[in-house]
Amino acid sequence: MTSPGAVPPVRQLRLVIEADDYEAAVRFYRDVLGLPEQAAYSGGDGAEVVILDAGRATLEIANPAQKRMIDDVEVGRQVAPRIRVAFEVDDAQATTDKLVAGGAAEVAPPTRTPWQSVNARLDAPADLHITVFQELRTLDERAALDGFGTDSGPAPVADGPPPTH
């Protein structure tokens, strides 16, 4: 737990993805999803990398039961691999439509979840299984719900752990 005002020991989470079709992946995540290009580098032998700004990063760790429950709620069956990338957006439906038109395969349409977000699942370039989600409540509003907690400890659980994205 970090004290208020203290500088966290980690400054950035960077997810590094190897893409067999580099150009298609860059086009999808930069141009279709709209992640701004922060930097790009190239090296010998055709080596290329682009760093895209995805806003604030978090690391969500779920146990197997939680992962299964999230898949059941959002998709109706088990589909997600061990790692799934989630992007918070302002409009889950419009973003899903745009991403499908841009090359993603819809796995599950935008669905309102019990934890008051609208989540869609897609298979996207670079072999990523992704979620786009739109929060319908603020973090403070969600923190007041049964089953939600903070780093000071878990909140009381009504019917199992709260699902996330």
Describe the structure.
The protein is α+β, with helices and mostly antiparallel strands and 165 residues long. It has four helices and six strands; from the N terminus they run αββαβαβββα. A hairpin with a 3-residue loop joins β5 and β6.
> In what range is the share of β-strand residues?
15-25%
**Number of helices, where a helix is a run of at least 4 consecutive DSSP H or I residues:** 4
Biggest beta-sheet profile: 4 strands, mixed
N-to-C span: 22 Å
The rough form would be described as globular
Low-confidence stretches: 154-161
Q: In sequence order, what are the helices and strands, one letter per element?
A: HEEHEHEEEH
Give the integer mean of the pLDDT values.
89
Which terms would index this structure?
alpha+beta, 165 residues
Compile the SSE list and pairings.
Layout: H1 22-32, E1 37-42, E2 48-52, H2 64-74, E3 85-88, H3 92-101, E4 105-112, E5 117-124, E6 128-135, H4 139-143
Parallel strand pairs: 3-6
Antiparallel strand pairs: 1-2, 4-5, 5-6
Summarize the model shown.
This protein has 165 residues and is α+β, with helices and mostly antiparallel strands. The protein is 22% helix and 24% strand. It has helices spanning 22-32, 64-74, 92-101, 139-143; strands at residues 37-42, 48-52, 85-88, 105-112, 117-124, 128-135.
